[in-house]
Design brief:
The complex is a heterodimer. Chain A is about 40% helix and about 10% strand. By secondary structure, chain A is α+β, with helices and mostly antiparallel strands. Chain A has a 5-stranded mixed sheet. The chains are: A alpha+beta, B mainly alpha.
Chain lengths: ~425, ~150
């Protein structure tokens, strides 16, 4: 019984259509091996970020916690303080840097999309569905990640939910793909070693005919060597690294990051560092943050404190990074009251705490901190930054700053601390 | 037996069944959230736009470049491809697509992205042009040893 005609339809389904003399198992194996470590970094840091939001705590989850895959619930540490800045900086920067290699990898296997017959066996059909999942989820993850980092939302779905679940599809598909292809990769490398990478253009020859349908049966004359192609993809990656990394590294590197979304600080003065969400965007009104503002503290001994009351308490100064899920970070010098002191004042020493913002709507207007995060001596209810009062956009009258905590969980315009 | 009917080892089948279970669960969750149709559209459009639009378009551009400038092809390819990938990754900022959201969230209008992308593109083409001039002054015998 034959499902498909023996002769492929015209065009890309005919093997002779694909003529690049560079394609073959060796090239695809090498591109895959260059891409794989980057994908592992992006996946690990991505799931680490999900964990860092501590979705099991009240109000923290963006992905419905009753349906979340429960593998990642453990307490996110408060040290080292740069943990989230580095982890999420890697997620976004390595993601951008991987784009040229991903494109090159997909180019190297494009004839497989037009394989004929479309399914040789059940196993072949099953594998191709797996490949559709890996390619679809990879392109989806890169596309949504790239636009999200630039605050461009041409889609209607919730970015976090879609990016997260697509990452599960991608990770599972990648594990299976690597397992299935490892023998092919090893065979290609054993057969050719690194020799094809050393061949000049004049010596570039097609790989021997293969059973995978990657090697062109009727190759054109090469116009670039394999090392030239690798240099081209590497050059693209290097350009994206330079264009992006500075927004996570900070200092002079920030100005070098010529396309990074958060390279420029807004305005001038002590508060001139990156803002994730302005007071206007959060709907914070001037009258909410004036002299009438009070901090409510809930616990065994509830308290209500004004800003002068808070300034009269012992003040601590800590140099801590604020690191956004979009990959950028910036380290500033914060001054305020230690959270552990406020916990002790409320009779709630050693407890976690839900922080409520003045913001009336929006998913991230509250966040719950663990007992360890409240108890860390560097964790502050910050009132001042770099020697000046917080600006409205940085959370005046008071904001949370906790080491290694994702940026948006450092709640701004704090209205209430409710110890658990 | 399985190998004959299925076409690969039982492990291959087990691995893929596990993958499909995870994928069905995860895609089901994503589709149960807001704007399911839009999510499905993006997931499929990503494949179609890359495999059937982007790749054929850049391949066609590359072939016409090979015909137009056979000797200088890589000296155009390098700056053009790197510039294109920068634009692909950063088009919302370079083309000013993100502005309204960006201003609301970050508190200022992002500026200079188009200028810096053009400047980097121009610099890469200038360097590549210089490299071409140097390469084409070398004796013909060594000319084909380029990238």
């Amino acid at each position: 019984m034959r499902l498909f005609p023996a002769t492929p339809p015209a065009g890309p389904f005919r093997p002779g259509f694909w003529r690049s003399p560079l394609r073959g198992p060796w090239l695809t194996a090498v591109l895959g091996l260059l891409l794989l470590p980057m994908l592992i970094v992006v996946a690990v840091t991505g799931f680490a970020s999900h964990t860092a939001y501590q979705p099991a705590l009240p109000g923290n989850a963006i992905v419905d916690p009753t349906r979340d895959l429960p593998l990642l619930d453990f307490g996110w540490p408060t040290g080292p303080a740069w943990l989230y800045a580095v982890s999420q900086g890697l997620h976004v920067t390595v993601g951008f840097v991987a784009i040229p290699l991903l494109l090159a990898k997909l180019w190297s296997v494009i004839p497989k999309l037009f394989e004929w017959p479309p399914a040789r066996s059940v196993a072949h059909a099953v594998e191709r569905i797996g490949l559709a999942l890996i390619v679809g989820s990879a392109l989806f993850l890169f596309a949504t990640g790239v636009v999200n980092a630039q605050l461009y939302y041409p889609f209607k779905f919730n970015f976090v939910v879609a990016h997260y679940y697509a990452a599960w599809v991608f990770t599972a598909a990648l594990v299976v793909h690597v397992a299935v292809k490892t023998p092919t990769i090893l065979r290609a490398l054993r057969r050719h070693g690194l020799r094809p990478a050393r061949q000049s253009l004049a010596r570039t020859e097609p790989e021997p005919p293969d059973e995978h349908g990657l090697v062109a049966p009727d190759p054109a004359r090469p116009t670039i060597s394999r090392r030239g192609l690798l240099a081209l993809a590497g050059g693209g990656s290097l350009a994206l690294l330079v264009a992006t990394a500075g927004q996570s590294i900070g200092g002079p590197a920030r100005a070098l990051a010529f396309l990074a979304p958060r390279r420029d600080p807004p305005g001038g003065g002590p508060n001139a560092f990156q803002v994730n969400k302005t007071a206007a965007a959060a709907g914070i009104k001037a009258e909410q943050t004036g002299a009438g503002w009070r901090l409510r503290i809930g616990g065994p001994r509830p308290r209500t404190l004004s800003r002068p009351d808070l300034l009269a308490l012992p003040q601590a100064t800590e140099e801590l990074p604020i690191a956004c899920v979009e990959g950028w970070s910036t380290t500033q010098t914060w001054t305020g009251v230690r959270l552990r002191d406020l916990a002790a004042m409320a009779g709630a020493a050693g407890r976690g705490c839900t922080v409520e913002s003045l913001q009336r709507a929006g998913v991230l207007r509250r966040a719950t901190l663990t007992a360890d995060q409240v108890d860390d001596e560097r964790s502050l209810l910050a009132l001042r930054v770099n020697g000046a009062d917080l600006s409205r956009d940085h959370g005046y009258p008071a904001r949370i700053i906790v080491p290694a905590l994702p940026g948006v969980h450092n709640t701004k315009w704090v209205a209430e601390l409710r110890f658990l | 037996m399985i190998r004959r009917l299925y076409g690969a080892s039982p492990l291959h089948l087990a691995g893929h069944l596990a993958l499909f279970a995870v994928a069905a669960y995860a895609l089901g969750q994503a589709l149960d959230a807001r704007a399911a149709a839009n999510f499905a559209l993006w997931f499929c459009a990503a494949i179609v736009l890359h495999d059937l639009v982007l790749l054929p378009v850049y391949s066609a551009v590359d072939r016409s470049l090979q015909r137009a400038a056979p000797r200088a092809v890589n000296f155009v390819r390098f700056p053009a491809a790197i510039s294109a990938v920068l634009l692909l990754a950063y088009f919302p900022l370079v083309l000013g697509r993100a502005d309204a959201n960006f201003v609301r969230a970050a508190g200022y209008t992002p500026s200079g992205y188009l200028g810096r992308w053009l400047a980097v593109t121009a610099a890469m083409f200038a360097l590549s042009g210089l490299a071409y001039l140097i390469a084409s002054r070398r004796p013909a015998a060594s000319r084909r040893s380029g990238p």
